[in-house]
């Protein structure tokens, strides 16, 4: 799975906001161009960005394997036409190029994921979106990261509990709805306990924000983001 | 110390509870993303995301339901592996062929919340007439399809009907089942709204 | 009878059970001790096929668990670490009935089993109570009733005492002792051995996925001096 | 100092606390005992305004809790039963920093507090560890550190030992003892009194929402013969 890993790369030293800007610039230009030459240029840029975060290419492809299947199917769907000649190679190739640029955007986003700890993302949200909404969004994102593994374990436990008393003998629909109700019930249960803990720790509207520093490296990063975004109009 | 601390502006108890529930529902949506069934009729997979969007609108209401699904997207964008097939990262929202569904999810929750509750603080959906619940969920589903189809048509450069045939129509039966499941959960009366 | 035959198991690449061989007889009262993470829960979950060994075999009444999951799960009842983890229904009655329903029994037989299981844990007549409204001790008892209603010949309990006060703990323990006297095998994983040892026919202690003490082999207890267990009674009632 | 002055409280119409009056001094180590449902958790939650009395007043350092919630919550640190449910961040350091951040302290002061709170529970240098990768005992200690980082003068712990093995339990208990020696008041609600009583300055036992034993009034223990407590030491280190 793709997650943050501590390291000393250039990407790790950047402010999360400049990294997000680069991501958006890259996506904008990738979605604007599908000519083979543009794709070549985009591939080069993507390779540089991946290197800047030392992203392991193979593991990343494995992590995105489901998305890759979808991207691989798309050209086939596009090539098939209703009526003669049934297969339109031109459509298929156009779609294949479209899929390829999507793959590049996905890979580049792995650079953000690998180089950015949750607390930086949270800080970026809280410093970008003003006031209470930004505050709640920031803490909320941290909580989603925190409880994702907890709720996964809950869902497994529910399945085990049903299996131990032979719930496996019931219909799929019945099983699914039981898992749904129980999963939701447990999640809300945990939420209610969490809300007490948050209050006990003085959960406030105006906390000290997690530290972020906009350093020397960030200026060139922002410049790259702007150039990428502008190249969308070429 | 005293003077420093007296400036602290505590978040009210009701809000804390709503935020906690919104975050946990978003995490549940992410945990359910493990269930991703590739679907031969479509480039999009069958997932439980729509069911959780239904529940967000029904149990958290228009404000916190939308916020909850928004949290889901934000956490996914920041790299939590919460999207279909356990993927995450900003690129998914920016480019994936199915990202239109993702962007439409919070709007779907908003529509459902507004239609069912008519105000910010949700009432118990078990007390809402069943036809209204069903109608609201269908409206939410349409919004989600609209987003998904529109985006797919743009990104895969197909016509809207082609896009609908590819990523919406094949899911109608499965999504109606999820609607029935949401209804069953509401009727079970086992959950309190925020 | 539950047999572990050279069972090893790991999560991903972390080994958790390491060449465990054991035989637990019908009607035996076994206490399973060991530090956090020593593998107690993992061992328990092999008894009814919730986990499957990487190598080796687990047999229940002579049949490998993987060959007859339904049989193993109706023979070996399981109570999870946190009672709340194991409820699947909203009311006491419907939760206890969940297992028997899955056995496909006729309704009258189901009702009979629910009634007698609830009687066994002193919860007669509480069928329509909401589980959420019960105290922690009452919840533990309902969890045990849910396993009893499957009419198992073994009961595996994974730390069933957490959060219980002393009277509740003692009443659950009494129940287990009398079940064991009536011929039900009991496997009880717990950290808190104080009043459990006198009831036990046998103490098994684990460390790092291995069985390091087995109280039936005389002198075994001496091997682990730092384990806070008293030597179990040598009497074994069902032999 | 935490004062309960004729506090009564009920959930909906069920009375849970019944005319409770108590004073807990700074630096005192108080054990709170009582059966399931006797009102321990409810009492704890009044100490920092998570619940408000229906009648009577709770004061922290002389100020009614309702008049200064922030003051009460930073003076009285609270640790709940299941650490897993109360962590708000994925890593140790960012979780412990959460409380001080909410107090709006400068970053350098926050870092200092995180460091000293982690040192107090023997977890120095573990800031970047993932919370999910910690053992149960370590998680309990991080939960305590999260409360300590608020620089509280009292620590209220609601059954912090559930699921811990003996070594982990002892390590948490050691920490509490040394915090108490350094002047932090400790209120510890627990069912399992075996090795806690020798540390305590005072034992309070509840039944049906009333305080039935208060170990500082001599002879009080005799009133409740069936409560498994030994008479506490009479020494009270911080007077
Ligand atoms: N789902 C899992 N994935 C990976 N590792 C796991 C999983 N469950 C348990 N483990 C590991 O397996 C080992 C044994 O765990 P187990 O739960 O069997 O211990 P235990 O003896 O029951 O401990 P406790 O007293 O804390 O309940 C531990 O090191 C634990 O970290
Ligand atoms: N949210 C609630 N709604 C209604 N009743 C409640 C609620 N919480 C607790 N009670 C009731 O209040 C009483 C006291 O509960 P409390 O949790 O304070 O007991 P406790 O001494 O902590 O018990 P335990 O040892 O089981 O934790 C119990 O009878 C319980 O059923
Ligand atoms: O990449 C994602 O995470 C989005 C997947 C969207 C799947 C859509 S939602 C509506 C329809 N119903 C399904 O079960 N799957 C599709
Ligand atoms: Mg265990
Ligand atoms: Mg309690």
Automatic annotation (TrEMBL), chain A:
Pfam families: CbiQ
UniProt superkingdom: Archaea
Name this polypeptide is given: Energy-coupling factor transporter transmembrane component T family protein
Transmembrane region(s): 38-57, 64-86, 98-115
Location in or out of the cell: Membrane
Bilayer topology term: Multi-pass membrane protein
Alphabetical keyword list: Cell membrane, Membrane, Transmembrane, Transmembrane helix
GO CC terms of this entry: plasma membrane
TrEMBL record, chain B:
Main localization, broad class: membrane
Any one GO molecular function term: biotin transmembrane transporter activity
Any one cellular-component term (Gene Ontology): plasma membrane
Chain segments annotated as transmembrane: 20-39, 51-78, 98-116, 128-157, 163-186
Subcellular location: Cell membrane
Membrane topology: Multi-pass membrane protein
Keywords associated with the record: Cell membrane, Membrane, Transmembrane, Transmembrane helix, Transport
InterPro entries xref list: BioY
PANTHER family to which the protein is assigned, alphabetical: BIOTIN TRANSPORTER BIOY (PTHR34295)
Similarity comment text for this entry: Belongs to the BioY family.
Protein name: Biotin transporter BioY
Automatic annotation (TrEMBL), chains C, D:
InterPro entries in UniProt: AAA+_ATPase, ABC_transporter-like_ATP-bd, ABC_transporter-like_CS, ABC_transpr_CbiO/EcfA_su, ECF_ABC_transporter_ATP-bd, P-loop_NTPase
Coiled coil spans: none
Membrane-related topology note: Peripheral membrane protein
The keyword Transcription regulation is annotated on this UniProt entry: no
Main subcellular location: membrane
Residue ranges of the TM segments: none
Cell location: Cell membrane
Hydrolase found in the keyword field: no
A Pfam family hit: ABC_tran
Keywords: ATP-binding, Cell membrane, Membrane, Nucleotide-binding, Translocase, Transport
Start and end residues of each ABC transporter domain: 2-233
PROSITE patterns: ABC_TRANSPORTER_1 (PS00211), ABC_TRANSPORTER_2 (PS50893)
Family matches, as PANTHER family: ENERGY-COUPLING FACTOR TRANSPORTER ATP-BINDING PROTEIN ECFA1, HEAVY METAL TRANSPORTER
Function: Probably part of an ABC transporter complex. Responsible for energy coupling to the transport system.
Similarity comment: Belongs to the ABC transporter superfamily.
Protein's UniProt name: Energy-coupling factor ABC transporter ATP-binding protein
């Amino acid at each position: 799975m793709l997650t943050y890993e501590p390291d000393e790369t250039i990407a790790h030293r950047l402010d999360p906001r400049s990294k997000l800007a680069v991501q958006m610039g890259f996506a904008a230009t990738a979605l604007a161009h599908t000519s083979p030459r543009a794709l070549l240029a985009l591939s080069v840029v993507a390779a540089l960005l991946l290197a800047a975060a030392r992203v392991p290419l193979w593991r990343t492809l494995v992590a995105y394997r489901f998305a890759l299947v979808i991207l691989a199917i798309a050209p086939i769907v596009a090539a098939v036409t209703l009526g003669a000649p049934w297969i339109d190679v031109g459509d298929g190739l156009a779609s294949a190029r479209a899929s390829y640029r999507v793959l590049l955007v996905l890979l580049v986003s792995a650079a953000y994921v690998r180089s950015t700890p949750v607390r930086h993302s949270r800080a970026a949200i809280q410093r970008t979106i003003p006031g209470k909404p930004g505050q709640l969004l920031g803490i909320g994102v941290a909580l989603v990261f925190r409880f994702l593994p907890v709720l996964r374990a809950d869902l497994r436990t529910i399945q085990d509990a049903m299996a131990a008393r032979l719930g496996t003998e019931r219909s799929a629909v019945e099983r699914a709805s039981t898992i749904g109700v129980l999963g939701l019930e447990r999640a809300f249960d945990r939420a209610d306990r969490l809300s007490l803990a948050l209050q006990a720790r003085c959960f406030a509207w105006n906390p000290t924000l997690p530290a972020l520093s906009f350093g020397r490296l960030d200026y060139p990063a922002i410049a790259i983001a702007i150039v990428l975004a502008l190249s969308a109009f070429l | 110390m005293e003077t420093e601390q007296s400036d602290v502006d505590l978040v009210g108890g009701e809000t804390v509870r709503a935020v906690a529930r919104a975050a946990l529902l978003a995490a549940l949506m992410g945990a359910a993303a493990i269930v991703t069934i590739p679907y031969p009729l479509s480039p999009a997979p069958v997932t439980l995301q729509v069911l959780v969007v239904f529940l967000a609108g029904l149990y958290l209401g228009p404000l916190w339901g939308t916020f909850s699904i928004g949290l889901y997207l934000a956490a996914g964008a920041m790299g939590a592996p919460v999207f279909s097939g356990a993927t995450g990262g900003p690129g998914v929202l920016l480019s994936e062929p199915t990202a239109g569904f993702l962007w439409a999810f919070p709007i779907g929750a908003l529509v459902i919340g507004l239609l069912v509750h008519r105000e910010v603080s949700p009432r118990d959906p078990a007390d809402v007439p069943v036809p209204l619940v069903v109608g609201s969920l269908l409206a939410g589903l349409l919004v989600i399809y609209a987003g998904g189809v529109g985006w797919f048509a743009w990104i895969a450069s197909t016509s809207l009907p082609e896009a609908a045939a590819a990523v919406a129509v094949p899911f109608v039966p499965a999504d109606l089942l999820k609607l029935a499941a949401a209804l069953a959960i509401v009727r079970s009366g086992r959950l309190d709204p925020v | 009878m539950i047999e572990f035959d050279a069972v090893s198991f790991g999560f991903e690449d972390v080994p958790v059970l390491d060449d465990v061989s054991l035989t637990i007889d019908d009607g035996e009262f076994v206490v399973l001790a060991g530090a956090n993470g020593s593998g107690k829960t993992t061992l328990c979950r092999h008894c009814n096929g919730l986990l499957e060994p990487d190598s080796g075999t687990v047999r229940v009444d002579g049949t490998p668990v993987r060959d007859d999951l339904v049989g193993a799960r109706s023979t070996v009842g399981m109570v999870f670490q946190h009672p709340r983890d194991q409820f699947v229904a909203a009311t006491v009655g419907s939760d206890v009935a969940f297992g028997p329903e899955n056995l496909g029994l006729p309704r009258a037989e189901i009702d009979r089993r629910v009634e007698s299981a609830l009687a066994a844990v002193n919860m007669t007549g509480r069928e329509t109570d909401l589980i959420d409204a019960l105290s922690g001790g009452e919840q533990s008892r309902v969890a045990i009733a849910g396993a009893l209603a499957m009419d198992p010949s073994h009961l595996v309990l994974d730390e069933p005492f957490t959060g219980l006060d002393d009277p509740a703990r003692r009443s659950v323990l009494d129940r287990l002792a009398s079940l064991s006297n009536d011929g039900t095998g009991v496997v009880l994983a717990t950290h808190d051995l104080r009043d459990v040892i006198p009831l036990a026919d046998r103490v098994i202690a684990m460390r790092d996925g291995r069985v390091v003490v087995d109280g039936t082999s005389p002198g075994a207890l001496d091997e682990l001096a730092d384990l806070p267990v008293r030597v179990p009674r040598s009497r074994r009632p069902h032999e």
